[in-house]
Design brief:
six-stranded mixed beta sheet, alpha/beta, 225 residues, four-stranded antiparallel beta sheet
Length: 225
Amino acid sequence: MKILFEKAGARYSGRVVLEPLSLELSERRIGVIGLNGSGKTTFSRMINGLVLPSSGRVLTNGHDTASDGAKVRAAVGYIFQNPANQIVLPLVKDDIALGLQSRRLGKNEVALAVAAVLKRLGVPHLAERRAHELSGGEVQLAALASVLVTAPEIVIMDEPTNQLDLRNRNIVERTIRDLSENVIVISHDLSLLTGFDRVLLFHEGRLIRDGQPEEVIAHYLTLAA
């Protein structure tokens, strides 16, 4: 993984949401923290082209998010803060298969791929379940399966433990820990980021700390006091 921000910033309706910054990311586990409205979600969405820079540019694995959007989206899977919003078909197995439609695979190949990704996450029993019947943790895992089935190199997760009970939160934490893909996690759940390689702290649209989890989180706690 190699992500480059080259003096890249974002504005909405003339308002600065993210001050221009220059940054390189290559670590396997990266956390992103900050108070609400700090710019952290905008930053994460710039990585896969959901938000295009108003100034500068962003390169993800060598592809410009503004001009090579399709290649960027193929390399980066994104799970939103409310993952239920990205599950569009009633049955879990059909929703996961949706991401493979453009690959011209046979029905048997698709079925095998869906079964494999659910088995990998330890939830093969979800295949025949209906999305509206899932618990919060199961929704998170179903959304993750729909992303992983397309084999992205990078997975971005926005508040993956938000509103989960302790059991489901721990399941999601273990799942993130065991992923072989590069992972970027935006979270207020600070203990989730323990052991990560790097944590970025955003505040009022600026990156103000960048380093080891313990040091960056300690500074964040002074802002939130």
